[in-house]
Design goal:
Elements (H helix, E strand, L loop, with lengths): L1 E5 L6 E4 L4 H13 L1 E7 L5 H12 L3 E6 L2 E7 L11 E2 L4 H12 L5 E4 L10 H9 L3 E3 L8 E4 L8 E3 L5 H11 L5 E5 L7 H8 L4 E4 L2 E5 L9 E2 L4 H13 L5 E7 L6 H8 L3 E10 L2 E9 L20 H10 L3 E4 L12 H11 L3 E5 L2 E5 L6 E4 L4 H10 L7 E4 L4 H4 L3 H7 L3 E5 L1
Parallel strand pairs: 2-15, 3-14, 6-7, 10-11, 21-22
Antiparallel strand pairs: 1-22, 1-23, 3-5, 4-5, 7-9, 8-9, 11-13, 12-13, 15-17, 16-17, 18-20, 19-20
The structure holds shikimate-3-phosphate (S3P).
Shikimate-3-phosphate binds next to helix 5.
Amino acid sequence: MKLCVQPGALQSAKICMPGDKSISHRALILGSIACGKTRVRGFLNGEDNRATLTCMRQLGVQIDEVSESELVVHGVGKQGLVASVEPLNCRNSGTAMRLLAGLLSAQVFDSTLIGDASLSARPMTRITDPLAFMGALIATTGEGTAPLYIQGMHHLKGVTYEMQIASAQVKSCLLLAGLYAKGQTIVRSPGETRDHTERMLKAMQYPITQDGNCISIEGGGELTACDIDIPSDLSSAAFFIVAAAIAKAGMLTLNSVGVNPTRNGILRILKQMGAEITLSNMHTSTNEPIADICIQASQLQGVVISEALVSLAIDELPVIMIAAACAQGKTVLRGASELRVKESDRIHAMVVGLRAVGINVEEYEDGVVIEGGQLNGGEVDSFGDHRIAMSFLIAGLVASAPIIVSNCQPIKTSFPNFISLAQSVGMQVEVVL
Ligand code: S3P
């Protein structure tokens, strides 16, 4: 599917983004192994989360879909999962595969995790090495990729593990295995990463200790089901935040967005660039901080992005690169080599796309230097990556001629109603043949 965006202004509006993808995965997984019923509101009904939902059903969990965004997960307790006859298909979702690998390594039955072509090319030894260290029997292909073959093994032992990369997926994988391990599992990260797993475990009354970037969990306890109200996804909001920051006119208010400090790098970076962003109606729900975010246009300035903010804005960096392309001066992003192993090589995809619309970019192994300027129209490829597709659709608002983005189907992995929401704020976005 190709989409085309015409240059133009936004209409001022108050809109709601879909639910948070990371929290939706965790609600399904932790709800499944809790004791009791977990009612989930604000669930993101996108393809990635549906992959996790299908996997949990295959593992014997009853999940009622009350409405598009409301579920009831009938928890089976930590020992209640059963083997899936078929391989568990995580499709495009790295979070599904890496979190489920931790959970399934600790079960008494065997499991196989598979994914689509993109997921099957992504690195998995970052989880299989530490899981093996805990005593798991888990194998990858010779390239260290999926399929993952897990042999049932219920004698994991707690370990102390120093992660080489700041990754919430690796951390969460090990915490899930740690729930079943004998003794204490301690995970140290070289940087701050999203802490949704820790917050949800606490909401389910499972003790977990945090000291800076070091988390410890003791195996053997039980999780108690609770109601989970999922905030809107800041990673989806990011596209509209940048749209309002760069567009010629229009003020957007995004209601009830998750603003967890381990996820809010985009807000900090855009504010440094001079964006006019205000947060109001701050509150907390199921341990997650939430706010309404209001954004209006302003002239952005290029900045040097602090490497400490990279893991706090990891999924938003493609659309931040669009903001950088519209800013005055240079923006430097380094220390972001993780972008090369996302749903696509996001450094390569953004460099190719930005150059195609006339922006000067220097490419480095771990980042980019972007010189702000006037974007031209043209055609860019999403490289099969939802966030690359949406980033360039936002860029179309301020280009001198329409931007066409090819390969837009994956948008529905994380943001099924992106097009209709974009149209509702005045963006002229249409399917082209
Ligand atoms: C996620 C963690 C991040 C992020 C991904 C979702 C999560 O990945 O990029 O989209 O839900 O834990 P890494 O842990 O690989 O950085």
